[in-house]
Amino acid sequence: MNMTTREEAERTEPVAGAAGDAVSQRAEAAPKRRGRPRSQASREAILRATGELMAPGQYAQLTMEGIAARAGVSKQTVYRWWPSKADVIVESVGEGYLTLPLPGPEDTGDLHADLRVWMHLLRHEIEGGGASQLAQGLVGALAQQDSRGETIRAVLVDPVAEQVGSRLEAASQSLGTALDVEKIIEVFTSLILMNVLFGQRMSDEWIDETIAWLIPRA
Amino acid sequence: MNMTTREEAERTEPVAGAAGDAVSQRAEAAPKRRGRPRSQASREAILRATGELMAPGQYAQLTMEGIAARAGVSKQTVYRWWPSKADVIVESVGEGYLTLPLPGPEDTGDLHADLRVWMHLLRHEIEGGGASQLAQGLVGALAQQDSRGETIRAVLVDPVAEQVGSRLEAASQSLGTALDVEKIIEVFTSLILMNVLFGQRMSDEWIDETIAWLIPRA
Amino acid sequence: MNMTTREEAERTEPVAGAAGDAVSQRAEAAPKRRGRPRSQASREAILRATGELMAPGQYAQLTMEGIAARAGVSKQTVYRWWPSKADVIVESVGEGYLTLPLPGPEDTGDLHADLRVWMHLLRHEIEGGGASQLAQGLVGALAQQDSRGETIRAVLVDPVAEQVGSRLEAASQSLGTALDVEKIIEVFTSLILMNVLFGQRMSDEWIDETIAWLIPRA
Amino acid sequence: MNMTTREEAERTEPVAGAAGDAVSQRAEAAPKRRGRPRSQASREAILRATGELMAPGQYAQLTMEGIAARAGVSKQTVYRWWPSKADVIVESVGEGYLTLPLPGPEDTGDLHADLRVWMHLLRHEIEGGGASQLAQGLVGALAQQDSRGETIRAVLVDPVAEQVGSRLEAASQSLGTALDVEKIIEVFTSLILMNVLFGQRMSDEWIDETIAWLIPRA
DNA sequence: TGGTAAACGAGACGGTACGTCGCGTCTTTTC
DNA sequence: GAAAAGACGCGACGTACCGTCTCGTTTACCA
Asked: Is A127 on the interface with B (CB under 8 A)?
């Protein structure tokens, strides 16, 4: 990610020892910045506006001008802190201003049924078009600058994996079956995301077959 | 895909007349179009130019103006025959003017070994960055105009599925095992494309595990 | 003046042997241009808009964006034909889309009285501020690119010189006096323009003195 | 308007106190300002920078940011003491940090000869372009903010008038002739400034004629 | 001699205009 | 009637200055 060191410093400062940051020893050598400090309000407004404009139907407005306008901020302020649209999107998503509208599966005790219900839900979501558009938009927007795979993965893949994962792990314990949970999660996520990304319609049969194939009944 | 019917009809016609020739006497059985016929040379030049501009590093030039300029053709000529950039790209890829730098697996008789070799090859390709960039670019370019996904699938998914598919089917017959070939192909393709699209690194272990999990040894 | 040769050719073509053009022998070698010809309507709209925006009070809008907007034309169209704002202004003025709001003297037979009345009129005009603002604006706008003295002279100086000149020449003949008419015109024009440009107030005494000094009574 | 800022500051202070303020106990007209006094060094640096940036060729840099940068000063410091760019320019010129490259006439005893020599010198200066450009620039810069003209007159007209004036007054006394010196100065200045402003070329004949016409030989 | 208030540098802020690029459409002449 | 040439309205791009606004840091005065 091509963030300037200044930006990096600024952001991580209030957040403190965030995320997977191991090397945070740089406390000495005061990072005392001179001049007026950047407006935290502007920063948030920009990231929020970006998140909002990623919503289905708004996507056409996802321009630097659109973001600035909706945030009530000057274009220059956006450019001052993020060198490109991709960077703004990445940070907006990273800060949680936008989440994929994909729910996770319930837990009624019957794993197969839960997954089936869930995938029907996903199908409905995909058919609405919003999720696909958003996913494609993300890939498209980010593709222009860098590959930035980790980011997209963090936004697109991880949440889905997490949701299906927690359900599977619960089942794995209660069932006592020897499921390769990790692999199943991975495959499940891949299949679903392909369908979301490419707007593929999941037929009833395909759903049943897929579940059966991935999680053989005992 | 949104190809005009005229385009479809027209295209197959001169292709029969083949290669470099212009004034062949295909007159008979003709649907007799009046006026100057469309230039086959222009068509090829456009598709070739599109393919060339999709090459990694050139992607920024993939504009309608860039295509027309490189093809030595007027913009109108491009628009006359393809309603959108997405359609040009799709046809360019379809006609082989651009190929995803993703080879298929060899057939040495040992399915597991072949797949392992192949996936190491893919990993190398992914690490080069070109494939990921191109795949992302395709998604991005196509998403802007045609979010329906069939298009992207045709360009991105199908070729990979075909390559791994033919190897698997061959194995399926020689092995006589009851493999759900279709499902395996689908899953294989999904996993690989996810990795390509998001630049995920495939470790040796991951490759071995995945193959073993998908195609259990007899 | 930095007009492109193409623009020059285009403009002078319909105008025929305009202005002081002596070398117009280039008729042969048909300048047949290809592609869509430039829109005469746009050209006129731009020049008219420019003239209108030079009017007192509107001057703040005299931006390339303002001109394009008022002309109902895209910015690019303005830039396509004139490389800078100064060039647009020069041509707008040159084509008569704007004239200095300075009247000429009447002819009642009494030269001194006529001039006095006229200068009082001018004083009123100057006090309104419009004329000064416009003159300064012209100088300022044109100064940024080139010196372009001839143009400003043509717009600012010549009309005034002409008006006072014709009155003086008429008087010169009827009086039979040996007036150095040319010199007087020159001086008169200079004095008046200095006052216009710098918003100098002309007092009654100054007017009388000046007229008496320039045109001694017989 | 073109009062020095210090005067301005001192003036507005009591005015502010008079504006219906309740706490105004400092009635005893104390001009004593508290806090850090303004930096004389900054003031000079700003005026010098302004003068330097008015030099021919540099004119495009004559922005508030440019001035501040070259003076090694913050923008706010400039704005604190001068309300507009015009004021800075006026004071810079007034303090002699920039002089129009227009010399005055020598005094060899022969008035006509002195003037002729001087005007040839001016012609050379005008042809170089620098003087015209600078004069136009001044008009342009000042016109944008202060169209009242006194400012421009003070900068542009007065210096020239003074130079030619002192030579003429000297001559007037030694000659004893009844010259209307004031008028002659005015006319001379007008003619010359018109030529400078509009880059008009003064021919040998024109110079001789003009001098002869303005100052008839005894 | 230490407080304090104004001036200082730095530089971010909301704006407006700049000049350019690409879009998809249009209007010419040429083939 | 297709093709090249290229102008058109549109809208976003990224940059430059504008004049204003915090910040933390001097620095001269007055107590």
From this structure: no
